[in-house]
Queue: 2 jobs
Job 1
Amino acid sequence: MGFLCGHGINGFRFIIDYVCQTKTSRCAEIGPFNYCFPHFHSDSVVYAGVHDMIELIARLSSKTVEAEASFSILDLAIKHDIPWLFSCTHGTCARCRCLVTEGLELLNEPTEAELDRLEPEEFEQGYRLACQAKVVSQGHVKVKNVPYF
Ligand code: FES
């Protein structure tokens, strides 16, 4: 275990100033509005607020936006007014289905709902459900909304 030390901006984003193995006085030197988080593995970096860009492609428009901790791909599309098709928001309708053409390895593992709804071949081809998939590691992700109909 170690610590990630840095400063926060806009409530969520966290910029790492340094990484240390034990908490020291230097951790406190970074001042108010700054933070020092324990971290155990690379996923924790994401939940401390370090993110990258995700390119969201819908039928009628596309945008590149900043991935945010705990936001699904669908949440990001809705937040940024991208006309992403969806209905249930909990992994059953598959209207939000998407093809991840870059950065598939940067997403969370498929959820139980996705395992129930999508076929194994779809996972092999890079399909996910946007209401279930989240960016959990740093890097560029490119996703296209590809519903069945
Ligand atoms: S919105 Fe229904 S499965 Fe994602």
Note: The longest strand covers residues 2-9.
Job 2
Amino acid sequence: MRKEVPRVTSIRRLSRIFKKIHEERDRKNGRTGTKRGKENERRLVASFEQYQGTLPSWFFAIYPATQEEDESGADAVIDTQDVGRLYLQVKSSQSGVRKFYKRRRKKMIGVIVISDKQSNDDIVHVALSILESLRAKLLERRTASLEEEGKMATCKTCNGAGVNETGNNNLPCDDCPAGDTALFNIAEVEGLVTGAEVRRHFLNSSPEPITFRWPPIHAEDLPGRKK
Ligand SMILES: [Zn+2]
């Protein structure tokens, strides 16, 4: 016996039905994709929080990107001592990485692929090596542009990083302009301060000294800093 098949009244109606099915499927895929992406972003930051090894001295902090930073392609923000902020975008697959590099706008964004199989330490090691190479490129570029302006041959004291590592302390370099803009962690201050601010407030000969205090003052409240 022939089975009753519902009559399709028109091609137009049929294509509407298919369109609905496809939309629903895309919506579901999109949603699981985003959910997994968010989880990997959290995992990246959490891996650093749980990391017991030694982090390089230029590494200050990692935190999740703000909505605005997210829109410009960053999932995590990394504060560094000498090259300012670096950004990481988290992907779950290599194909995502290729797509990202094709339309990347900012040069200080690196891409990290995170899979479920990786341990937290693996993730930190991979992230650090990506950040190292971003940092090296930025230092190189900065040195090149300073040389172009004739301001400086590469500084022998700090290698262009702006930080004079004395062994005991990291001090702002006094021998080149990068010393003013390098960033530092100071116990008395919440947030990062520039080399120029270190000289102004926190060295023995500082003209406007800020003495140790608790709770720390916020970097935004340093005298002379723009609000
Ligand atoms: Zn220097």
Note: Residues 163-221 form one domain.
